[in-house]
Amino acid sequence: MSKNELDKESDKFLMVLQLISDRMGELMYAVRGTAGLVLQGLNMQMEDIDIVCNKETALASYDLFKEFLKENVEYKESDKYKSYFGKLEIKGVMVEIYGEWQILDNKGVWSKPFDGSDRIKVKFKGEEFYVVPASTELQMFALMGRWSAFHKIKREIGRKEPVAQTSQQELFSGTVE
């Protein structure tokens, strides 16, 4: 769903994001992926909500969201990713939890763990949310080799006013936590 669609039909996603925010409180986490980018004002297609967090927050998700669990949070490793991973379904919205998420680059080297520690706080429709900064999103998409998404994000960032004269922090009305 695009930002415009989110503006028109956002109740479900906003309710889910607010529930996540309320339950996770000040634990170390951030909304990432297209959901995080939409919250930062970029026009992206959003179908689910991805959360990066530290190991403790990922494991706490079992108790915080037990009525929504679709897949228990546990350490998982694939050919390309490793993290404390689990799935939730809240009001029909799929939410994926990635604790200490790492990506294997094309040289066979694991990335640093993404845990939400570089999060910024943004306001969307009067609510505050922790999100992964767009610069970190670009890094993640590059590590995953998702170049079309990488370039779309760069274009969307370039459309925000006035990009050339503001810092990323000012651009997204966020503060680094």
From TrEMBL:
It comes from the Bacteria. It comes from candidate division WWE3 bacterium RBG_16_37_10. This is Uncharacterized protein. InterPro entries: NT_sf (IPR043519).
